[in-house]
Amino acid sequence: MLLETIPNFKFEDIEGNEVSLKDFVGKKTLIFMWASW
User: What is the pTM of this model?
Assistant: First the structure.
């Protein structure tokens, strides 16, 4: 399973709620990360 190879991390959603990657087990999920240095 792919989740076993990805470290669990926590982040905030657009409403400021803490979300964990484990919350999406079994669901199709698109993770979009963007950074500006």
Answer: 0.47
